[in-house]
Amino acid sequence: MTLFTTDALEGRCLPLFINNEFVPSQGQSFPSYDPATGAEWSSMPDATADEVDRAVRAARGAMTSAAWRDMSQTDRGSLMYRLADLISQNVDRLSRLEVRDNGKLLKEMTALTHAVAASMRYFAGMADKIEGTTIPVNKPDMLNFTLREPVGVIAAIVPWNSPLLLLNRAFSPAIAAGNAMVVKPSEHSAASILAFAELVAEAGFPPGVFNVVTGGGQTVGDALVRHPEVDKIDFTGGPETGRVIAASAAQNLTPAILELGGKSPNIICADADLDRAVTGVVSGIFAAGGQTCVAGSRCLVHDSIYDEVAERLVARAAEIRIGAPTEADTQLGPLALWSQVEKVGRFVEGAKTAGAKLLAGGGRAEQMGAGWYVQPTIFGDVTNEMDIARNEIFGPVLGLIRYSDDEDMIAKANDTRYGLASGLWTNDMERAMRFMRRINAGMVWINTYRSPSVMAPSGGYKDSGYGKHNGFAAINEFTRIKTVVIDYSGKTHDPFVMRVQS
Ligand code: TXE
């Protein structure tokens, strides 16, 4: 019987996972809460520095073991296919663990867990198709080619909003490329990642390829990031933490991928199909309670349609069904953390003081009792200078910003320290093309929003971070290039002159 179900874990403490074994931690434990009720449901340990070290050494051991290092690429892919099948067979159990930890809708987490299995299959198929290149250098009698090698031990630091999906953005390409991994899940949502670890062992991965250490960011996360045996860091979280991690990583010159959220513009042009556009804005900010890195939290609207759009959005917000995340017809569940409820409250008060007009919501959804629910909230008359438009809130809070013409629109869209995603609703393809070129963001969605694909690179510009997930770009992130030169001329050359020419 597995420990990793919502019932079995009730009141229990999570273990660590090192070398394919679940081990109890010597560290202090702290509670994990159910956001739907606000009640404690399980706990997890704050792994000790020694345990972090053991996990990293286990991963290093896998990298040097014949079982992993010498496994053929095709066999690596086969293990990933097997794991993907196990995930597919356990979608409901894994999704319910995520919902218990982070309060997101069961139907959303179910879709995301299916997506984890699908994207694992995509990368499994890549495992034996990672190639170097042969370079026709300007030197006769020399062969020059590149090898793509695994980077080594990957440390993944995962947030609470979509634990398995965000873990897997690193896991699948890293493992397909032959790396080993230590993950530190969020201190708010580790259960599904330990359930995933159990499936990793069941699929038959050699010991040490995947390890889990739970605990706080400044304790366990920091020890992991600073570990000298870590070869690359994959971090998803807030920009302040991202800066701390980049600084810690710099001590060992450890490279990192940082995905740090955004303040993405979702723009409605005067010529847009308003039904589709308004639905796209609703999906961009109210789906997942706005707790998504690509949330379209700034809605830029052309002056001529501003009043109509505001009216339609307010009507749509009033229809959103707030309820328990496991109920099939719920559209907005609780926020994952009490601190996020407080954060939303601070932004709402700040926006009112700054002169924004509260059009909808603005408070807690009191009918949901002690659960961490807030109302879908819309502010009108927002300007880019206001805090509500400058900082990521990570909640269901939308700001409406007017614009006058395309120049004003692009200037306002780009007037942000972030640059993750962007959306534009228009039927004018020339306008769409100009926007696509000039927007300073890593992802552009035209007449759609929140439509990522595992096959397409995703990642931010500016304070939204650096490095790419998904697509072949992710394989590039988790491999390094070695250049090999072979001289078959049989000649001896002047030793005091570098052979830059033939
Ligand atoms: O994130 P943190 P928090 C944004 C969102 C949210 C804000 C704060 O705006 O309101 O960040 O959320 C680990 N060394 N996003 O506090 O702190 C931490 O334990 C190593 C956007 O939850 O960034 C957790 O595992 N690790 C976002 C992870 O970092 C450290 C998703 C994320 O935590 C660490 C989540 C340290 N010094 C929040 N400090 C997105 N891009 O989707 C913390 N951690």
Automatic annotation (TrEMBL):
Q: What name is this protein filed under?
A: Aldehyde dehydrogenase (NAD+)
Please indicate if the UniProt record lists Coiled coil as a keyword. no
- Origin species, per record, is Salipiger marinus
PANTHER family, alphabetically? ALDEHYDE DEHYDROGENASE-RELATED
Print the keywords alphabetically: Oxidoreductase
Q: Transmembrane region positions? A: none
Entry similarity comment: Belongs to the aldehyde dehydrogenase family.
Outline the extent of the Aldehyde dehydrogenase domain: 22-484
For this UniProt entry, the molecular function terms from Gene Ontology, in alphabetical order, are:
oxidoreductase activity, acting on the aldehyde or oxo group of donors, NAD or NADP as acceptor
Active site positions, chain numbering: E259
Please verify whether the record's keywords include Signal.
no
